[in-house]
Amino acid sequence: MDLFYTLLILAGGEGRRMGGRDKGLVEIDGETLIDRLLDAVAPPGPVVISANRNLDLYQGRADKVVRDRRDGYRGPMAGLEAGLAVCGDGPVLCLPCDLMAPPPTLPGLLLDGLPSDRVRRLEDDHGPQPLCLGLHGERWVASITDYLDRGGGSVRGWLKSVPHDVVRLHGRLENRNREERG
User: Which of 144, 47, 127, 163 is closest to 94 using CA atoms?
Assistant: First the structure.
């Protein structure tokens, strides 16, 4: 794929299912989840990380690190709002920080031929993957802000209100959103 895009990584959660740990900085086999994701995707353009803690640790891994614009942990939509606001209006690949070994075809699936007036969401054999998105940056910030201001909170809820397409990935994406119990 010869498409220049910005990678937006959502890493701003509370880590409740990870025992309060910052999910992006959790290590698997000696490598943080965020580093594993960056190695797998290797974006051709800038990297933006949406994080609400440990910003100094994320800074060396991104061109920009942003915090939510809203107080408290408002979930991935608040991270999307803050992150997209600094991504410009070009194509953006949005992924969660705990995505393990995404296939090299993922950026193309979500971004190739994507019109600027639509969002593209991924679905795998497990079902919808609402945090794996292709979209054109700043264009969607006003819509997200309006949705959050009206009390909305879920990515799925927001997607119902905007023109979007679903692309299918055969197989199953793995993410690490729970603490390993030994």
Answer: 47
User: Which pTM value belongs to this model?
Assistant: 0.91
> For the chain (length 182 residues), average pLDDT per consecutive 10?
87 60 87 92 91 92 94 85 95 94 91 96 93 95 96 95 95 64 36
Interatomic CA distance for residues 138 and 87, integer angstroms: 6
Q: Which two tokens stand for residue 39?
A: 């190695």
Could you please report the per-residue DSSP string of 110-178?
HHTT--TT-EEEEEETTEEEEEEEEEEGGGGHHHHHHHHHTT---HHHHHHTS-EEEEE-SS--EE--S
